[in-house]
Specification:
Helix 1 crosses helix 3 and helix 3 packs antiparallel against helix 4. It is built from five helices and three strands. The chain has one domain. Strands 1-2-3 form a three-stranded antiparallel β-sheet. With about 140 residues, it is mostly helical. It starts with a helix and ends with a helix. A hairpin with a 3-residue loop joins strand 2 and strand 3.
Length: about 140
């Protein structure tokens, strides 16, 4: 289950990263100004993105797909994703940090999406990993 999560999450993040490079899928940006405004907008009218954000999604996608090759890699991916996305969710709530110092938008609908991703990843990183503990050791 954990390996499937890593693979599916990786594919989703890879696709979202790619979609962020299609201007037709971006609506006008809202929120604070960014230092990097290339591909800045709201993906599908909902989620603020920009060039940096898209590249991070591509990297996370590749990480997930690569991590899915082994159980320990998948567990590490799920746990790392949990920590990363809790931090990003918290940053999205704090003015000044909600743009990652002007590099990427973390505000708006990204906040609940980051916390939701962290919650699901935590389940697979710690909860589901216990179900396969004999294989994990």
């Amino acid at each position: 289950m954990v390996r499937t999560f890593a693979q599916v999450a990786g594919i989703i993040y890879l696709l979202v990263g790619i979609l962020g490079f299609f201007p037709a899928l971006l609506s006008a940006p809202t929120g604070p100004d960014l230092a990097i405004d290339a591909f800045h907008g709201r993906l599908l009218g909902l989620f603020p993105v920009n060039l940096t954000h898209n590249i991070v999604h591509l990297a996370i996608g590749l990480w997930g797909i690569t991590a899915a090759r082994s159980l320990s890699g998948a567990v590490g991916f799920a746990r790392g994703l949990t920590v990363l996305y809790v931090i990003l969710g918290i940053m999205g709530l704090i003015p000044g940090l909600n743009t990652m110092f002007g590099l990427a938008p973390l505000h708006g609908n990204d906040v609940w999406l980051h916390f939701g991703t962290a919650l699901v990843a935590a389940y697979f990183g710690w909860g589901a990993a216990r179900d396969t503990s004999a294989s994990y050791r």
